[in-house]
Amino acid sequence: MGTDTDRYTGEYAVEVAGLTVDLERGAVNVVSDISFALAPGEILGLIGESGSGKTTVGSALLGHARAGTAITGGKIVVDGVDLLSLNRKELRRYRGRVISYVPQDPRASLNPAMRLGAQLQEALTVHGVASRQQRLARIRQVLDEVKLPSDDRFLRRYPHELSGGQQQRVVLALSFLCRPKVVVLDEPTTGLDVTTQAHVLRTVRELCRSHRTAAVYVSHDLAVVADLADRIAVMYSGRLVEVGAAEEVALRAAHPYSRALLDVVPDPHRRREIRTIRGRVAALHERPDGCVFADRCDFVEPECRRQPIGVVRIGDGHTALCRRTEALPVRAGQEEESTRVGGTPDDAVRTPGEVYLAVRDLRASYGGKEVLHGIDLTVPRGVVTALVGESGSGKTTLARCLGGLHDEATGEVSVDGRRLAFGAHERSAADRREVQYIFQNASEALNPRKTVGRSIEQPLRVLGGADGPLSQRVASLLADVALGSDAADKYPSQLSGGERQRVTIARALATAPTILICDEITSALDVSVQSAILLLLKRLCADSGLTMFFVTHNLAVVRAIADRVVVLNEGRIVEQGPVDHVLDRPQDPYTRQLLGDTPSLLHA
Amino acid sequence: MTPPDDIAVATPASATTGTARKRNAAPPRKQQSADGVRAVLRRTLRLRGARVGLVLMLVVMAIAFLGPLFSPHDPTATIGSPYALPGGDTLLGTELLGRDVLSRFLHGGAVILLLSLLATVVGAGTGMLLGLVAGYRRGVRGELIMRSLDVVLSFPPLLLALLFMSLLGTSPLLVLLTVAISHVPYVARIVESSTLAVTGRGFVQYCEMIGVPRRRILTGEILPSIVAPLTVQFGLRLTYSISLIASLAYLGFGRQDPAVDWGMMISQNQSNVVGSPWPVLLPVLAITIVTVGANLLTDSFGRAVGVDLGREG
């Protein structure tokens, strides 16, 4: 790892200099002064929160600017040609052949009506591989490389016949088909569970190594990239605030923002204090004049705000956009930190109280096909239990059974000795008040036509339980989830992803439940937003003694929030126990595999 | 993020996997609320098609409903020789039986437009109810509703109408009902599929979880979410109503002589269309214009809300 590019003397695979993207109207800058060069086979991790401009840079590398924006300056030299000097037609010949793109959602780039073979062939035909024999040979070779079957039966399949991970591999195959010099990967694993993600990451690395293809890997998650990339570039507010070798940045981050990003990443191997980055990314037209990070920085001085910050050299190929790097305290080393915040599971786990929620021989099926095969589970009051497993392991089905959203089930679920019906319609109002469910996708979980206030009021109107005026209760609930009372009059589309999820949490808390079920509620969010939500939930649980179920595929999140963990595989519990116990000494091979696949900064 | 178990992934609002990308350094978002009725109307009327369509519809409707007030003659009285050319007492000449063309034209529109509107309201309303129930409750009930509607769907609307008429005779009420029935399966299908998509979303599931009564979920959560496709369907169905009812009238299943409607005017006078074009041309033009107008308006509305649906979520 860590090829030293400063000493690299050969020809670069891609050289970007002074790349600038502006809005077409109003002379507002989106990203500016992006410069880096990649040697053949080198992987750059481009990191930042939503709104940092990382995707803008990613697509600009292909000479593309989204509607309303324009590339207004800079150079992107690939293969000796400046892509920005080409016209549309010439650019099309380069895209896919010399520089290719892997999007976040593979479904978006596969034609659902075309067989895989035809789609792969098409890519080669467009770029002039004439003979059918040659094309097929190349396709089979690349499919082998991405570890997909390459026989005719597979080529005759349609995209919808593949799993999400397989689809993403097909897209990888497509982008490497023409042996490009550079590949841009835009969060290609964000929609995948950890095991599939680990496979895809491994494939990307092998492809880049064996073809000497340079790659720009865009992600919001430092832990994902730290292990994959040779170099890391951290973006904030449209600028590269830090660039350096992956190990350097992971261990000795110089910019306060990089440090903050490192701090918010949960780790599966040790219990870290949950930290957050205060404030939020400034909107385009509200960016500060001086240091772009000044408003959220813990080390800011008046001088920082006066004028734009110049590039500061930290070490060999390591630069940062911060004038105070010297003054920053030494960041606690990894080892040191792990002992400092060593796991202290909550009292509830050490001295298990009486059973609050009990599940006995729960079997659930979809359309006659059984997906949960006899789940037995007991949970004391006030304990946070994580349900972990890959997609298809049955963790969400289990959560839905508890929440009353799935009634094709047999067995017994009881709370405090009372038996709960499976369908919510058969539960008493009191039971429905006690058990609340938070959905993964907050923008779908809120009616887009209702104000936030109306949404939060709804359970109170339906189930009762509010003393005093509703508006007052809504305001206090919003305050509980750290939102201002002015949010009540907004519509979901006016909020950010994290804020929307806070609203659904507030709605779930409205009826003062004793059991809260969270279904992957942070997996669609940025890591920094995720840590803020986790912190909020942790505080709520401590304050009100909530018994919480937290469904996730990410063991790092488990370590951060849960007291107990239940590992599910193919509809069965394979392992359960206190979090620190299970994750420090996993017994089941499946748990070990999950743990190994979970990205961790410790590996970097 | 785990892919959800159900495959409701293709709905526009569920493109959350892409939101992070969309949000990145996107141009500063204008404050947008969920589309109020007024905002949608304003956006619709900003389109030229909508304005033209509205004017066309209003003109024909004014003729049909206000026309009788300005009628120069009794539409049923013979005032000259058959097919007299325009001039003198008659601005546009006379028709087959020597009655004033203009007066008959002015009197003949209201019934067609009114019946069309009512048939559309009844048909689209019924279709909406069935579609909502079928889409929300699925299962045996939904299957039963949708498959029986498929039977209706297999008859061409005009044929269906003729079948009913020849079995039960003609009356305005029957015309209304048969045309309404012919709309039901089309509207029900659209509403069912939209309902299905909305039902899979978290906010509907949340309502079920806290035990909002099903009827309230249908009216309070689902219906408002499918207003846009429903309105487009209503507009489309209106234009079909107009042409279907005019066709039925032309075939003799409308008002009976001496009363008048536009369809009847066309059929009575078509044999002499070359010698005396006005009694045919006027109703043909009126029906064409109102249909085109309604279509333009519907189309613009669809585009106005379509744009909005794309930006949601």
Automatic annotation (TrEMBL), chain A:
InterPro entries in UniProt: AAA+_ATPase, ABC_transp_ATP-bind, ABC_transporter-like_ATP-bd, ABC_transporter-like_CS, Oligopep_ABC_C, P-loop_NTPase
Keywords: ATP-binding, Nucleotide-binding, Transport
PROSITE patterns per record: ABC_TRANSPORTER_1, ABC_TRANSPORTER_2
GO molecular function, one term: ATP binding
A matching Pfam family: oligo_HPY
CDD domains: ABC_NikE_OppD_transporters
Keyword ATP-binding recorded: yes
Domain ABC transporter: start-end pairs: 14-262, 357-595
Name of the protein described by the UniProt record: ABC transporter ATP-binding protein
Source species of the chain: Streptomyces viridiviolaceus
Organism lineage string: Bacteria, Bacillati, Actinomycetota, Actinomycetes, Kitasatosporales
Automatic annotation (TrEMBL), chain B:
Stretches assigned to the ABC transmembrane type-1 domain: 109-298
Top-rank taxon, per record: Bacteria
InterPro entries attached to this UniProt entry: BP-dependent_transpt_permease (IPR050366), MetI-like (IPR000515), MetI-like_sf (IPR035906), OppC_N (IPR025966)
Start and end residues of each stretch annotated as Disordered: 1-35
Keywords on record: Cell membrane, Membrane, Transmembrane, Transmembrane helix, Transport
Keyword Transport appears in the UniProt entry: yes
TM region positions: 52-70, 110-136, 148-167, 234-253, 273-297
A Pfam family: OppC_N
Membrane topology designation: Multi-pass membrane protein
Cell location: Cell membrane
Family of the protein in this entry: Belongs to the binding-protein-dependent transport system permease family.
This protein's name: ABC transporter permease
